[in-house]
Design a protein that fits this description.
Elements lengths: L1 H28 L5 H15 L4 E5 H5 L8 H30 L5 H15 L4 E5 H9 L4
Antiparallel strand pairs: 1-2
Main location: membrane
InterPro entries: Inner_membrane_protein, UCP028777, YccF
Membrane topology: Multi-pass membrane protein
């Protein structure tokens, strides 16, 4: 089911937002200061192409320790990101979600766009993993 969802997602708009993420990543790589943001853009842009079956989690949930992206520098980076690009990518995902909500069959895609909108507001310190790994990291295998 994930494969079918990803194919429909890609053909019906996922490619647009994925390319938007990659474009922002290319712009971020123009300066040396933007490299951390650019890296996050490419990871999340790839996630935007085929999001079903994967989930974004903070790296410290997986490793149980802070790193540069999950510490105070990551928080500062996310504030800068929010004003430079995050809000614009979030608006793109919200508009895509509204377009998907119009049809009943598009509701799962709209929900995925809303998840991506939240991620786009503060992507530094997050990584993309399979849903099972995310669940295990968050709940330790408990239900």
């Amino acid at each position: 089911m994930r494969t079918i969802g990803n194919i429909i997602w890609f053909l019906c708009g996922g490619v647009v937002m994925g390319l938007a993420w990659w474009l922002v990543g290319l712009i971020a790589f123009v300066s040396l200061i933007g490299i951390p943001w650019g890296r996050a853009c490419f990871v999340i842009g790839t996630f935007s192409f085929f999001p079903f079956g994967k989930e974004a989690v903070y790296r410290n949930e997986l490793t149980f320790r802070e790193d540069v992206g999950t510490g105070i520098l990551g928080k500062i980076g996310n504030v800068i990101w929010f004003f430079l690009a995050g809000i614009w990518l979030a608006i793109g995902h919200v508009l895509s979600a509204v377009a998907c909500f119009v049809t009943i069959i598009g509701i799962p895609f709209a929900l995925q766009h809303l998840k991506l909108a939240v991620i786009s507001l503060a992507p530094i310190g997050q990584t993309i993993v399979p849903k099972e790994v995310a669940y295990g990291a968050r709940y330790g295998g408990r239900r």
